[in-house]
């Protein structure tokens, strides 16, 4: 039982990332009708927002420390972050330590800007083009963005640690009545799941309970009629593209302590997240979230040594096998709408 609970936790962790990326993909497809294969690159850019913010916080200057000497007895030169000069050693060190969660404040405006520029500069020219054209141009954009990141940050993964307060693990099993050390789980993975739940709930609440969200949902159902009412639905859809980019960016920024950012991480998550969208149903926001967590849990169980010993490599293909099975029985996905992607 403890092994099952541990795999469920692992699945919720993976599913959180899949669900957030798939949610943004579905928002873009549902509002603009665009199959955005550059959405994984937005996840990657969000991760490098955290890397960049962390480096900005660590900007330093060199001073001579009279209290420390080298082997010749000369005073040592040490680097002191500017934050420690401005806020004091303890406060400055604490701000640097909390770089990843604080990077949200940096990632939101950056990702909104990236989303607006992407939509106005490129995506808008492909609204009425075939989905194949949309896939090709956005996939090409994803490659270009990946190469830009590679040129500026290098090809190697960049470790970006979580705050020291959350660097350890929680004895989760004790909460459920198990023996001590039966279920040990990293704090930050639990934080990421809770963070994802808040973002997902916030997106649904925004669409469900705000006037802006209601107009967007009406535009998703009947864009022409909403336009005839005198509402600039195109402007609202552009804002939704920016919000979808921000969701993907926040998902990437908070994921950096779990997976060290590298220029290819966007592609890795994009393929899986697009499968999640198709399984959940193209254009269905609840379907994207449900499929994200479902496939994350299935992939987690498939990665168990007991399963891999019976079916080697099953953890690499389980998502695709499930997708094939679901689409054979439910061609529109779990919660897909009639007429979407059927022309």
From TrEMBL:
One protein family per Pfam: BPD_transp_2
The name this protein goes by in its record: High-affinity branched-chain amino acid transport system permease protein LivH
Record family assignment: Belongs to the binding-protein-dependent transport system permease family. LivHM subfamily.
UniProtKB keywords: Amino-acid transport, Cell membrane, Membrane, Transmembrane, Transmembrane helix, Transport
Membrane-spanning segments: 16-35, 42-61, 95-114, 190-216, 236-257, 269-298, 310-328
Keyword Metal-binding: no
InterPro entries: ABC_transp_permease, BCAA_transport_permease
């Amino acid at each position: 039982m403890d092994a099952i609970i541990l795999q469920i936790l692992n699945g919720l962790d993976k599913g959180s990332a899949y669900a957030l990326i798939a949610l943004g993909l579905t928002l873009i497809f549902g509002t603009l009708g665009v199959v955005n294969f550059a959405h994984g690159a937005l996840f990657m850019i969000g991760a490098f927002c955290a890397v960049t913010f962390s480096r900005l916080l660590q900007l330093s200057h060199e001073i001579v420390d009279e209290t420390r000497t080298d082997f010749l007895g000369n005073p040592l030169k040490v680097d002191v972050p500017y934050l420690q000069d401005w806020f004091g050693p303890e406060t400055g060190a604490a701000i640097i330590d909390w770089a990843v969660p604080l990077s949200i404040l940096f990632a939101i405006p950056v990702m909104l800007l990236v989303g607006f520029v992407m939509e106005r500069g490129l995506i808008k020219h492909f609204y009425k083009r075939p989905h194949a054209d949309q896939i090709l141009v956005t996939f090409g954009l994803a490659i270009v963005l990946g190469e830009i990141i590679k040129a500026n940050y290098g090809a190697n993964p960049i470790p970006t640690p979580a705050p020291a307060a959350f660097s350890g693990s929680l004895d989760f099993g004790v909460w459920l009545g198990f023996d001590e050390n039966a279920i040990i789980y990293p704090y930050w993975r639990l934080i990421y799941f809770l963070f994802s739940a808040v973002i997902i709930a916030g997106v649904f609440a925004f669409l469900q309970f705000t006037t802006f969200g209601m107009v967007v949902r009406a535009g998703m159902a009947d864009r022409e009629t909403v336009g005839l009412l005198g509402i600039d639905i195109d402007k609202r859809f552009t804002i939704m593209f920016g919000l979808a980019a921000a969701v993907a960016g926040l998902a990437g920024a908070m994921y950096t302590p779990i997976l060290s950012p590298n220029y290819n991480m966007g592609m890795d998550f994009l393929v899986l997240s697009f499968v999640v969208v198709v399984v959940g149903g193209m254009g269905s926001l609840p379907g994207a979230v449900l499929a994200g967590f479902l496939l994350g849990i299935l992939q987690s169980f498939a990665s168990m040594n007991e399963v891999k010993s019976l079916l080697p490599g099953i953890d690499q293909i389980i998502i695709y096998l499930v997708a094939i099975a679901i689409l054979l029985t439910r061609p529109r996905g779990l919660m897909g709408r009639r007429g979407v992607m059927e022309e």
